[in-house]
């Protein structure tokens, strides 16, 4: 049985996977926005049909969001959807 070496995470899985700094930052923001949107939908108790009405998108888009299909959403679209869901979106620069 071979042992795999464990490496401590940098805190950004996309950095750890070898994405460029620019792409890693965008992917991390998209992932965080999608997670926040999924949480907001769950906390509101919305069905996908209800969420589509509140967010102003087709139910199939909500399905993509809930299923984590991050490649189907631009950062701009996720910011728009988060705002429509009543979330406050801010950029914190470190």
Walkthrough of the structure:
There is one protein chain. With 94 residues, this protein is mainly alpha-helical. The protein has one domain: 434 Repressor (Amino-terminal Domain) (Orthogonal Bundle). It is 57% helix and 0% strand. The longest helix is centred in the middle third of the chain and has 24 residues, at 21-44. It is elongated. The termini are far apart. The model has no long low-confidence stretch (mean pLDDT 90).
* CATH class (first level) name: Mainly Alpha
| Separation of the first and last Cα atoms | 42 Å
* Approximate shape: elongated
Which class do the helix and strand fractions yield? Answer: mainly alpha
The number of strands is 0
The helix tally amounts to 5
CATH architectural label: Orthogonal Bundle
Fill in the CATH topology: 434 Repressor (Amino-terminal Domain)
Strand content is under 5%
Sheet having the most strands = none
* Share of helix, binned: 55-70%
Outline of this structure?
The chain is mainly α and 94 residues long.
Features:
94 residues, mainly alpha, 434 Repressor (Amino-terminal Domain)
């Amino acid at each position: 049985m071979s042992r795999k070496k464990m490496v401590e995470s940098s805190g950004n899985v996309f950095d750890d996977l070898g994405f460029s700094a620019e792409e890693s930052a965008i992917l991390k923001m998209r992932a965080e926005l999608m997670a926040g949107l999924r949480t907001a939908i769950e906390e509101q108790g919305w069905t996908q049909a209800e969420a589509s009405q509140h967010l102003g998108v087709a139910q199939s888009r909500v399905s993509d969001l809930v299923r984590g299909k991050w490649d189907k959403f631009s950062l701009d679209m996720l910011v728009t959807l988060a705002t429509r869901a009543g979330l406050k979106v801010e950029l914190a620069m470190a």
